[in-house]
Amino acid sequence: MDATDALRSTDAPDNAPTRELDVRAMGPPKPLTETLETLAEIDDGEVVVQFNDRAPQMLYPKLEDRGFAYDTVENDEVTVTTIWRA
Q1: In the chain, what are the domain boundaries?
Q2: pLDDT per residue over 64-74, tens digit each?
Q3: What phi and psi, each to the nearest 5 degrees, are found at residue 80?
């Protein structure tokens, strides 16, 4: 699954510019911190597409606290979470 497939498979705006973030090889807490740092840098209307090896459960409440919407899709190879400003 690539970023385009992820946008089509989630509720994220599918016509927005994207920033891909692959955190599959990172050990905790690096995926969480990398994602939050990336989100602090995005432009309005930009969508972050995070590729992970599991659903980022610890990230979800932090996204909600910061006013981001998100959607996660999983398949056998990757878990992809799209994140955008709500």
Answers
A1: 3-85
A2: 999 999 999 99
A3: -120, 125
The rounded distance, in Å, linking the Cα atoms of 25 and 56 is: 14
Q: Which CATH architecture has domain 3-85?
A: 2-Layer Sandwich (3.30)
What is the DSSP annotation of 15-69?
TS-EEEEE-TTPPTTHHHHHHHHHHHHPPTT-EEEEEESS--TTHHHHHHHTTEE
- Other residues' Cβ atoms within 10 Å of the Cβ of residue 58: 11
Residues 30-49 pLDDT 10s:
999 999 999 999 999 999 99
Q: Kindly state the tokens that stand for 68.
A: 């981001």
| Pairing label, strands 79-85, 68-74 | antiparallel
